[in-house]
Amino acid sequence: MNDMTITRAEREAKLEGMGCKRKRVEDIRFTQGKGNYVDDVKLPGMLHGDFVRSPHPHARIKSIDKEKALKVPGVLAVLTAEDLKGVNLAWMPTLAGDVQMVLADGKVLFQNQEVAFVVATDRYAADDGINAVEVEYEALPVLVDPFHAMDPDAPVLREDLAGKTEGAHGPRRHHNHIFEWTVGDRDLTDAAFRKAEVTIKEMISYHRTHPSPLETCQCLCSFDKVKGELTIYGTFQAPHVIRTVVALIAKIPEHKIHVIAPDIGGGFGNKVGAYPGYICAAVASIVTGRPVKWVEDRIENLCATSFARDYHMTTEIAATKEGKVTGLRVHVLADHGAFDACADPSKWPAGFFNIVTGSYDFPTAHLAVDGVYTNKAPGGVAYRCSFRVTEAAYCIERAMDILAQKLGMDPAELRLKNFIRQEQFPYHSALGWEYDSGDYHTAMKKMMEVVDYAGLRREQAEKRAAFQRGETREIMGLGISFFTEIVGAGPSKNCDILGIAMFDSCEIRLHPTGAGIARMGTKSQGQGHETTWAQIIATEIGIPADDIMVEEGNTDTAPYGLGTYGSRSTPVAGAAIAMAARKVKAKAQMIAAYRLEVHEDDLEWDIDGFRVKGLPEKFLGMKDICWIAYNAPPPGMEPGLEAVSYYDPPNMTYPFGAYLCVMDIDVDTGVYKVRRFYALDDCGTRINPMIIEGQVHGGLTEAFAIAMGQEIRYDENGNVVTGSFMDFFLPTAVETPHWETDFTVTPSPHHPIGAKGVGESPNVGGVPAFSNAVNDAFSFLGSTHIQMPHDFWRNWQAAKTLGAV
Amino acid sequence: MDMNGSERIEAPVQTVWQALNDPEILRQCIPGCETLEKTSDTEMTATVALKVGPVKARFQGTVQLLNLDPPHSYTISGEGKGGMVGFAKGGADVALAEDGPDATLLTYVVKAEVGGKIAQLGSRLIDSTAKKLAAQFFADFTQKVARVREEIAS
């Protein structure tokens, strides 16, 4: 059975298990154009829906005339809020406890809001149809600036909330106020500030941006009137949640709803929420009795579905003269747009922003977040980050640099002085989290050594002197970021979405010939789950990764799970895989014991099978155990070899990293060059180093985009002026710098395989590194903080303001 | 969007004033103007087809003449709706001054606002498009006024 001519190393290599740079199996189809995306799915008799959208950011709807549109050849139906009221779907619940108009009901609250849904035989006819719908608007005063949202005379945006002084997250102080969320000890923190030798205060804004996946949001709904069943193909990061939400709001029994998420072309948080397009396509299919497809175009994606960030963070740090931090106080003004549709676990109106104490040992902290309504698109998704964690990391990493500047201390030294020390883990933060593990000093020192930090600072000092002598027009900045993420939502004790606990799941079924299938509650949008999940199984149960098929996204076959976002897949579903595999292995061990005629305790695991302790020739491999499990199980044992695990994690995981960006900026043009970018990530146990590297490259590229130019911007009249890739910065290979990656490994103590999650770390850590580099470059000219995004124009403006031009 | 400028027209103030109040001349000179009808002495309705960058729109709207001080100045103000493409509203203060016996200096101050898709996609093109349209308007207008003068002279 066991071919002794094969060495242990060869057996190990054949598995392609954890730690192996296994090539992505999904790329075989993606690189040949054989992926299957929602838009590739075509059903007989399929219709196409498209939206009439509001040109006004705030207006009353005086009338909607469908007549001309219904006469357009190919147009079959035009749905408005009045039609949806008949099925009680004119409004829908949001993930954040608010309600949102599906189609404009009486008024519009943001530009490009959905007003009517035109259904036609093809997309062209639908487009002609939307142009023929006549809507009469009466423009209303527009509220764009969140800082004026709670002015006494600010326009009333949400008339539906008139008189409601209680929101989903406590009292509302003003008609445009959504919630106030506070964490921490206010008195203790105020006292720390009173006693402080040094304090800093800065309003740090993290501008509105957008995940902009290359594939936009889309769905195809097909209602079978005879069976009463609804099938939905969609770009869903969380297919099961969609099924449950549809069951709850459309009152269709959950077993008669089939949600299928095929290949997804990037999500980055954009595809977590429920959008009016999904509801309208489903209703249109029920009304017409035919499948209805809705595919967002680029402008619609950027302007209407789920922006990210828009946090305005007034940040204060108290410290001693020697640079020991003693207190942190943060107030956030959160611009949520017209509806609070943030995609956070339901009890967390500001996500996990209370990770804002970062990697530092703050004895006390206090945080208050005020959410407000404005005439902008709703959203607030976790764009390649765990919920509001990138805002928090940016806030604290920028503030630490500002403190260092005030103290005249090197920012690296300040960080080293205040890091949570290795022996303090598990560490209880002042704002309520229990950090699982970390070794910050080692990571930071490794980064400083590899990049020759001291040498770079010397070079910067020389360049500054040369600049002041008028010998160069270039300034140099070093951007440090040492972030701590909080991912893996999450433990059911504090994480749920609309009451659905945030566990995840895996079902492993091995076939008689020693191959198998793993079905998951997660859904890859490019993360490479088909590759990495099989690697965990390979290591756990000794079946080669190539012999395991990973299937996700079909709610009829997959075990219930909460999907993929917030770097939760490896911390939660990755654990479920290991636990399911261990159940399979336990049964396999019983079979092996029976076959090898020993007690189970006399067996030991050896790469791909069980061996009798002390008798190396008595071995039974997993492949053989699979056959026996079905065809000759021990007496009294059920045939088959499969297991399912639903994993409710005991805690979050806390990946961290040390990043450095070296940047040169020409003050006369504002043009920057990223000379070097070094990223050290510690994500615990590393499943596939090549995939990690790819994830880090992607996350850094998105961080680069956001910090250096990517923005959803509104003019003072409420027009979105960044509605296409002409104005919205999406970097290509031309603009993207070279990335250097590195790592340390500090496993999570509570995770079955010690893994922490990595997909979003580079975005969380990357943004402050870029922004700190720009700010560090300008700091010697007298600035403390320049707001993002740092495009050429703004850099040049900064240089001008500081008198360098 | 704000824009201002001046044009020298080879015609006496009175002739220019008349032309500025003549719907037919305005129709011919306003770029893309398909219809312009007088509904009262100071009100007109108009249809104008425009292209700003990638966005093509047909605006339907009303035009009003305000602050009339013949033959020296008026304010022309309008509002147009372009359906899905968006809307535009704005106005221009127009003043005429004698520049020698046979010429008029026309100065204008334009304030305009656009909304909807035209503002989203065309934002960086709006100023240059507006300048181009204004230049075209005055080129045509100067020519028309000159022709009117010739007709009167002959």
Automatic annotation (TrEMBL), chain A:
**Residue ranges of the Aldehyde oxidase/xanthine dehydrogenase a/b hammerhead domain?**
32-141
Alphabetical UniProt keywords: Molybdenum, Oxidoreductase
Matching InterPro entries: Ald_Oxase/Xan_DH_a/b (IPR000674), Ald_Oxase/Xan_DH_a/b_sf (IPR036856), Ald_Oxase/xanthine_DH-like (IPR016208), AldOxase/xan_DH_MoCoBD1 (IPR008274), AldOxase/xan_DH_MoCoBD2 (IPR046867), AldOxase/xan_DH_Mopterin-bd_sf (IPR037165), CO_Mo_DH_lsu (IPR012780)
Q: What is this protein called?
A: Carbon-monoxide dehydrogenase large subunit
Species for this entry: Shinella yambaruensis
UniProtKB/TrEMBL annotation, chain B:
- Which Pfam families does the UniProt record give? COXG (PF06240)
Recorded hits in CDD domains, A to Z, give: CoxG (cd05018)
Q: Which InterPro entries match?
A: CO_DH_gsu, START-like_dom_sf
Q: Which domain of life is it from?
A: Bacteria
Name of this protein: Carbon monoxide dehydrogenase
Native source species? Shinella yambaruensis
